[in-house]
């Protein structure tokens, strides 16, 4: 017997086991803050569990339905999915709560687990701080109380790793005197979108070693979508594996006032979301083929590090303007320019168009 997330082909059989309407189960399976898990034996769905969204007041997710055979495996997988959603434990329909399984021993595993937790808590904090005062940073970008509040939450969560942390809001003094791995956080990417109530806006965190992002996590706090990935280990969106793919859609940052955003040769569609972290994740999961800021002044390390970790796990390509790999430095003021694409050919064609 195997236990896994339900796919579209499982829903009809899972509906029969669960006794829910097909429409209700399809809605559950499509929600990023819910996970439908199935037990499969002999190619048939024999058991179903539905993991509800975590609650911020008690650190719990809840299994809102548990039916059929293979319940031990369903409970174990439900607890793993709850950890992926940022919960510390999961409550069963009957009986006591179950702790989520511990993270692996290595730094990447622990980082990804804590990043999911930090994203969940930051989302709640940002929602609670909505409507606060708005100010301008020296570079002209918008700052709100929600940024600082979410930053404090993330800093507290990642303190468990004892790794230097850089964020848009502050830098750890240890970064100036160490070549050790470091974490970079953007507690709220897409502040302008958040203020306008126009999705997406995101929490992102990346783990950097040797100038390369080795793991990353991004949570679209408007929708609940979550992307995670680690170099050499794979990448996931809402628990499912993702890969980049060639296509005809390009995503780009918002151009300066009065400037154009041309559609690159080889593309048919241009998209501007106003949230760089989500843009890069769209390349990682194959929704878009390429992203670039080659015709702009550049972007900041905290805006892109988390998503670059997802892209690295997915197998995407990231090249600087010189056609080489893109090293990252712990400097939130520096601007970096690059192209992120599904494959090397796409990336280099775009570089050739922006000499």
Automatic annotation (TrEMBL):
SUPFAM superfamilies noted in UniProt: Acyl-CoA N-acyltransferases (Nat), Carbohydrate phosphatase
Gene Ontology MF annotations: inositol monophosphate 1-phosphatase activity; metal ion binding
The UniProt record lists the keyword Ion transport: no
Keyword Metal-binding found: yes
Alphabetically ordered keywords of this record: Magnesium, Metal-binding
InterPro entries per record: Acyl_CoA_acyltransferase, Inositol_monophosphatase-like
Annotated region (Disordered), positions in chain: 230-264
GO biological process: inositol metabolic process; signal transduction
Cofactor: Mg(2+)
Residues engaged in binding Mg(2+): 168, 186, 188-189, 303
This protein's name: Inositol monophosphatase
């Amino acid at each position: 017997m195997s236990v896994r997330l339900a796919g579209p082909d499982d829903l009809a059989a899972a509906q029969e086991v669960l006794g829910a309407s097909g429409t209700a189960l399809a809605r559950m399976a499509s929600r990023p803050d819910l996970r439908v898990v199935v037990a499969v034996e002999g190619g048939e769905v024999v058991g179903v569990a539905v993991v509800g969204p975590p609650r911020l007041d008690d650190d719990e997710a809840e299994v809102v339905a548990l039916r059929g055979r293979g319940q031990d495996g369903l409970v174990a997988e439900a607890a793993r999915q709850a950890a992926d959603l940022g919960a510390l434990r999961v409550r069963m329909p009957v009986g006591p709560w179950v702790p989520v399984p511990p993270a692996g021993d290595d730094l990447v595993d622990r980082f990804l687990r804590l990043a999911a937790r930090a994203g969940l808590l930051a989302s709640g904090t940002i929602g609670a701080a909505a409507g606060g005062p708005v100010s301008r940073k020296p570079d002209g970008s918008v700052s709100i109380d929600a940024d600082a509040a979410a930053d404090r939450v993330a800093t507290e969560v990642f303190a468990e790793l004892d790794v230097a942390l850089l964020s848009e809001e502050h830098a750890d003094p240890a970064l100036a005197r160490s070549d050790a791995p470091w974490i970079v956080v953007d507690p709220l990417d897409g502040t302008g979108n958040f203020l306008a109530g126009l999705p997406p806006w995101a929490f992102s965190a990346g783990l950097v070693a040797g100038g390369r992002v080795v793991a990353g996590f991004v949570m679209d706090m408007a929708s609940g979508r979550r992307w995670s990935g680690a170099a050499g280990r794979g990448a996931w969106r809402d628990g499912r594996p993702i890969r980049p793919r060639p296509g005809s859609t390009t995503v780009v940052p918002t151009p300066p006032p009065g400037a154009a955003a041309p559609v690159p040769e080889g593309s048919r569609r241009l998209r501007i979301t106003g949230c760089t972290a989500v843009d890069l994740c769209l390349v990682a999961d194959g929704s878009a083929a390429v992203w670039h800021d080659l015709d702009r002044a550049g972007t900041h390390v905290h805006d892109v590090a988390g998503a670059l970790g997802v892209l690295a796990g997915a197998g995407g390509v990231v090249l600087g303007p010189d056609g080489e790999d893109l090293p990252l430095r712990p400097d939130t003021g520096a601007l970096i320019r690059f192209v992120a694409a599904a494959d090397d050919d796409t990336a280099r064609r775009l570089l050739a168009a922006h000499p």
